[in-house]
Amino acid sequence: MLGLGTQTDPYLISTPEDLNAIRNDLKAYYELTNDIDMSLWENWMPIAPSTTNRFEGYIDGKGHKIINLKIISSTEFAAFIGNARGDVSNGYIKNLGLENIYVESDKNNVAGLVALNFKSTITNCYVTGTIKNTSPTAYYTGGIVGRQYGLIENCFTDCNVIGGNDTGGFVGFLPNETAILKNNYTKSKVSGQTNTGGFYGRMNTSAGYRPTFVSNYFNKTIAGTTNYQTSGVVGLTTDEMKQQSTYVGWDFKNVWYMDSQTGYPTLRVFANIPATKQETITVNSHSLPIKSNVSKNIKATKHTKSISSPVFSITNRKISTTKNVLTYSLPIYTYAQKSNKIVRNITENVHTYINPIQAKIERYIKSTKQLNTHTSPITSYINVLAPIDTFIPNAYLNVIKGNSTAYNKQNLSNTYYITNPSYCEVIK
Questions:
Q1: By CB atoms within 10 Å of each CB, which of 12, 21, 85, 396 scores lowest?
Q2: Other CB atoms closer than 10 Å to residue 421's CB: what's the count?
Q3: Measured in whole angstroms, how far is the alpha carbon of residue 141 from the centre of its chain?
Q4: How many angstroms separate the first and last alpha carbons of the chain?
Q5: Residue 223, SS3?
Q6: For the ranges 37-46, 137-146, 346-355, which has the lowest average pLDDT?
């Protein structure tokens, strides 16, 4: 693995083999360069799994995670790191996620990240998966730490924690005042024998040995228990856990953010969301006097009304109507004059013949929208034939407004045609 293991040049971990090499130097500095999948690693042996062989180094996950780590152990201190030891000046694990871990043991001190944490600082870490202690008489089983003496800050767990005695969704047992837990939460499911709690299993309540809790929370609905709540440890419902206002004093600008998918707080370092940078900058600026020509522009808004003339339409409507029309003609009077120079008395019978009058009446109606009717004038044509002896007089009759007049003058004879039959008197 690359690096020298120093603070300025740490060992760089990029493979499962690099991760396993941590046990070769328990006081060095380590950094992860990427996520590491341990699916092909059959069974992980915990790093430093004893009271004498302890991890006193430094691990910075840099926002990366170890996935599918499997630990089945028959010894004490079953976790990714068995025993971590530090003090104020050294020893930390930070910015590291353990995802879908499986840990199983029947001995004391069982957890996901550290089985026994003796004053090493753990910050910005999380654990998901199953933590299982198969012995009902075993002690100290927790989601992130089994037995805790140091500081844990800004961490969370989402596990199924099964233990014997002193079992908690986050921590199993807190022995004394060196245990400080600040701004952490768990939504782990918990089951065990005695001293089983949603956040911790048991703590020392003796005067001078009581741990310190600041703004820690657990999901009492998922945990299946309301044990144990105290100052700084609060059990909440799922809805309450998904409200940012629940987490009093938490830094949602630089450390946390509310995950829109899960609804729970999530660490920014794992989402590559940079912390909000705040700094004060003093800027001295010099500006020349500003001269400007100001013109006044008035923009008027007017409402324009559009007036349209009424639209007139002419509808031609043709009506074809069949009607029975009776026509009446005034009597036709004919006057005939005949002059004859023959001096003798003679009686002549004069017969006149008038053909029947045929009248053709056509009525046209022209309709407009006002339904005005225009009727063409009625015209009648009458032909009169009047044979008198061998002379056939022709009569032409024009009928205007019902009046008819015919004239025939010959030899000063008077001929009258009134109606059929006609009578003619000749005087010589």
A1: 396
A2: 9
A3: 46
A4: 168
A5: helix
A6: 346-355
